[in-house]
Amino acid sequence: MMYHLRSTAFNTLRHYSKDTKIFSDKILSESHQATSPLNFVLGKRVDAQGSSSFQLIAPATGKVLRNIPNSNEQDISEAVLAARHTFKSWSKWTGFERGKVLKTAAELIRNKVDDLAYTEVLDTGKPIWEARYDILGCADTIEYYGGLAGGIKGDFMQLSGGSFAYTVREPLGVVGGIGAWNFPFQMAAWKSAPALACGNTMVFKPSQVTPLTAVMLGEIYQRAGLPGGCYNVVQGEGETGQILCSHSDIDKVTFTGSVPTGSRIMETCAKGIKHVTLELGGKSPLIIFSDADLDNAVKGAILANFSNQGQVCSNGTRVFVEESIAEDFLAKLIERVDNMKIGDPYHEDTTVGATISSQQAQIVEGYIDNAKKEGATVVYGGERVTPSDPNLAGGIYLRPCILVNCTDDMTVVRKEVFGPVLSLLTFKSEEEVVARANDTEFGLAGGVFTRDLQRAHRVVAAMEAGSIYVNNYNVYPVGVPFGGYKKSGIGRENGEDSLNYYSQIKSVYFEGGDVECPY
Ligand SMILES: NC(=O)c1ccc[n+]([C@@H]2O[C@H](COP(=O)([O-])OP(=O)(O)OC[C@H]3O[C@@H](n4cnc5c(N)ncnc54)[C@H](O)[C@@H]3O)[C@@H](O)[C@H]2O)c1
């Protein structure tokens, strides 16, 4: 994910600069984040008690920032207990009152955007303007759910003889949230805002790779008037996530991450018959017909592959280009990608920051090597770049990679790479390309570039995916639902529909006459 705003706003933000402040704010942010406790329970930062720990490494520099203890059963029980206790009162607030808190939080996020963005870069290595963009999008999302909260309501049905029925939309209880590392603040915001709007409370576990900004969101909610215990954070690796999902007092789990972890979480939740929402991986197709506006198609392909260092779940990494324009498309694509600036993510003009970790970089490079063995050709990039600043020597910077001579059966074309690797495939007919586009276990997103309206609608109708873009890619305006078909997930986030996944319906029958009983 995820760009919420229209592209004009995107360009404005891209050039918004506070260069002179960046360095000092960055240092401040680093020192604060290196020492303060990172669990958040009952409205306060607290240290976890677990005996094992993990390292927090800044992707931009490769430097170890600190060790963080894994939250153990005791830590999780305390957080869940706090959430359960506060649920009793929070769920009785009116939707309008809950909405006011969310709207205040959105404003506080906007006021704190630089601090949040610096910290997000520390965690992720993404370019600062992208981080700022993500954070402002989250403020919009939280405000959006603040607006919806007051309108959450049930139905009324008049029945015969003076009887009637009504429904009440009630919260589920305590929600366990688990996030991935590519959009850390967004995971916390997209899950907590609809959950809180419905009257639930939450215990959120960010990815161990990016633990910092989910806690800052807790402090913002607190300042906005959210009662302590409504939103709690526990830090830890997979084992901590497992304990959270298995806790008997968790009513629902909302998860973003890979398919194998999602499958394990679903299994765990099945034992307790818990509600579950899964936002999982993808291998999405982007189809470019010969009548498309070529410049826009090239821009779309870049948005579909290379933002956030290619670490975007909805990326359209299988780029199908109609054979007759493939050569022109490739030439324009290479020219534009060659303008991308790789380096210090804190610089406003950087467009490719650091890959999240050395392990992830090795996975990406493994896919590229394997693609070459299977017959693909690297026509651009794929190699490591060493920035001139020695401070960045420990970070991993990968040049975006374009592969040609690809076939549908290659590993790189079938598996989610989660890095900046575009596979270019060609096609001859609409029927052929739609069948090939759908030939995948995933169904998160897809795109089509064409000027032919009827064809656009035909292709959209035939594509098996949860989000489809026509003549653009990876745009996520606030309010538009997001989620996957097939193995890409269950449920939807971002949009009114999300409220259905954080609430349940109570139906009430009221008898207006005497009881009719045949016995
Ligand atoms: N569909 C979406 O909205 C979306 C968005 C972003 C990322 N993703 C997907 O996320 C993946 C990359 O993220 P990742 O590497 O962090 O994924 P991951 O599955 O390795 O980890 C995700 C989270 O699950 C936790 N976890 C690991 N094992 C667990 C267990 N047994 N029980 C409970 N929690 C456990 C991790 O600690 C982490 O917080 C990609 O597949 C990407 O497509 C999907």
TrEMBL record:
Q: Which PROSITE patterns match?
A: ALDEHYDE_DEHYDR_CYS, ALDEHYDE_DEHYDR_GLU
Protein name in the entry: Betaine aldehyde dehydrogenase
Q: Which UniProt keywords apply?
A: Oxidoreductase
Family matches, as Gene3D superfamilies = Aldehyde Dehydrogenase, Chain A, domain 1, Aldehyde Dehydrogenase, Chain A, domain 2
Q: Name one Pfam family in it.
A: Aldedh
Report the SUPFAM superfamilies cross-referenced here. ALDH-like
Q: Which InterPro entries match?
A: Ald_DH/histidinol_DH, Ald_DH_C, Ald_DH_CS_CYS, Ald_DH_CS_GLU, Ald_DH_N, Aldehyde_DH_dom
Q: What is an example of a GO molecular function annotated in this UniProt entry?
A: oxidoreductase activity, acting on the aldehyde or oxo group of donors, NAD or NADP as acceptor
Active-site residues are: 279
